[in-house]
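Q: What does the predicted 3D structure of 3-hydroxyacyl-CoA dehydrogenase look like?
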Amino acid sequence: MTDIKELFADEVVTRAAVRDVELPYGAGTMALITLDNGFDHTKPSTFGPGGLTSLNEAIDSVAGRTDLAAVGVTGKPFIFAVGADLKGAALVSQREQALAIGKLGHDVFRRLGELDVPSFAFVNGAAMGGGLEVALHCTYRTISSGVPAVALPECFLGLVPGWGGTQLLPRLIGPANALKLIIENPLSQNRMIKGRDAFALGVADAMFEPADFLEESLRWAAQVLRGEVEVSRTDHTAEDWSQVVDGARVLLDMKLHGASPAPYRALELVALARTASRDEGFDAEDQALADLLMGDELRAGLYAFDLVQRRAKRPAGAPDKALARKVTKVGVVGAGLMASQMALLFARRLEVPVVLTDLDQARLDKGVGYVHAEVDKLLGKGRITGDQANRLKALVTGSLTKDAFADADFVIEAVFEDMKVKQQVFAEVEAVVSETCVLATNTSSLSLTEMGSELAHPERLVGFHFFNPVAVMPLLEIIRGHATDDATLATAFSVGRSLKKSSVLVKDAPAFVVNRLLTRFMGEVIAAVDEGTPLELAEHALDDLGLPMTPFALLQLVGPAVGLHVAETLHAAFPDRFGVSENMAKLVAAGKPGVYGADFSLDPEAVTIFSGGASPSTAEQVRERVLRALAQEIRIMLDEGVVAAAQDIDLCMILGAGWPFHLGGITPFLDRSGIAEPRFLEPGVASVPA
């Protein structure tokens, strides 16, 4: 068997340095262990075999000392520790190796809770995964109010907290709160909590401000040791864990339909924590970790994680940043919901004036009013101060004339999805703006090249496609038209970065990436229903993928009229692959919002519209039909050069369509399923090494 140290040959070792600290108030000597990998906060400390060995040696050096009153653990500036070194974990190919990784972490970390003296974790910065588990093994914990991220993200990547987290956390803060950190937050786009939130949950026993965090933590530790501060804990084992666990399982089934094993294993481990001894609980974590390390889900999760953390930050094909022009004012054509969301985002992130225009004062007032109301909500939630709220409201104004765009550097339209309307809008805007002002369109499907064909300067037109809701969805499809120049494109990418979006460069092709694939997906499901497949059967044929919503629920979200329009656009471009459903047209004509009623039950009238076909399919046939269609469309898109590589398709679908992270992107999933022939990616990418 390959030694696990060989798998981590490239490990950046986190060293555990020990120094003695004399505690105040005569409380005695503390051996303070500092975790530090030798880099600044941009390269957080992680644990591979080398880091675990260093920590073990540090504990060895203090474990036998009789002169110590306590042992403390803290991190380098801004970072406590962020968990396991997953690069090596992805290379595991034997279960014995996987089991050894789990056991090594347990063997080292548990020593902090089994010393002859109390141990203190001083969480001075980001604490995630194994980093948080280090703290949980200690007797007491303090946390800085400035900590930006506390999390157990393992389920997000296809693992479980495997070094004590599933056993220690529910006993500390109760099963319901523990499941929020272990399962709910990871499955909600890997949500993190801040230091203040962690303290409120009871993860830490005391909280101090960042400026003098360590000094105050040492003072507090001294008071605890002297008996001047008493830390009380609730015995959560007396609670009804079964009700909490059963409720969480129901929610998991609704969200994942059993598609992702990691959250279910985590749930089993949390349930076990109520009665298991420390040895039993840690052994169960080892077994679960070993099983999951040997599965494709981890590799898929790591592949997806690498896309959103690395590729998204260095978009393929983006021009030199130096070419970007400065943006000091933004114009938004339209004052509807999408336009108003964009206006608020531009004002918050760019901190520049934003002016909305529309056809009448009532629409304009409604759009500006929406922005002001959303600002008030942010203020009410404590996310901005009163001064910030006043500044944001002052930045967003309205105008009935496009003359207000005269000094704008970036103007984006969000009007009706009609080519003639958009061409007229840009003709009016171009007449008043400077020659260097970037003109952006939020079109979801129309040709930029055609849209700019009547402009005097088509080189400054660029696609800037947001996803709804604008503030939440992280993807921006940036589309280069036939004439778009590098300066315009560089400015678009610069603005995207300032908006904190992940941008992907897309060729000017019908419906670009996400809408093209979602329309093909929807088209195949609707075609199966048109042919006679029961609507409810087709609706749930792909539940086992754990998609964020079912096909007809998605249709309800975007609206049948919008869905029909995009289908017609793609049918015009690719009539052999994209059909237009007559029943969909009937649904739109009937004024239905979708196939579901207000109570989320199927609308009998809508179902009747789709009934009558004579060639029904089984659920498995619908599933295979959809997946094969997606594989075909992706292959064609890559051949057409719509994006630079398959990885960009995956990035778009993860960030713009909510493609499940545990599947690792759509192309590796199609590879693993045997649907893609030939493969999109090399063997071993997002799958267990052979």
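A (community wiki): The structure tokens above were generated from the sequence. The chain has a mean pLDDT of 93. The first strand starts at residue 15 and ends at 23.
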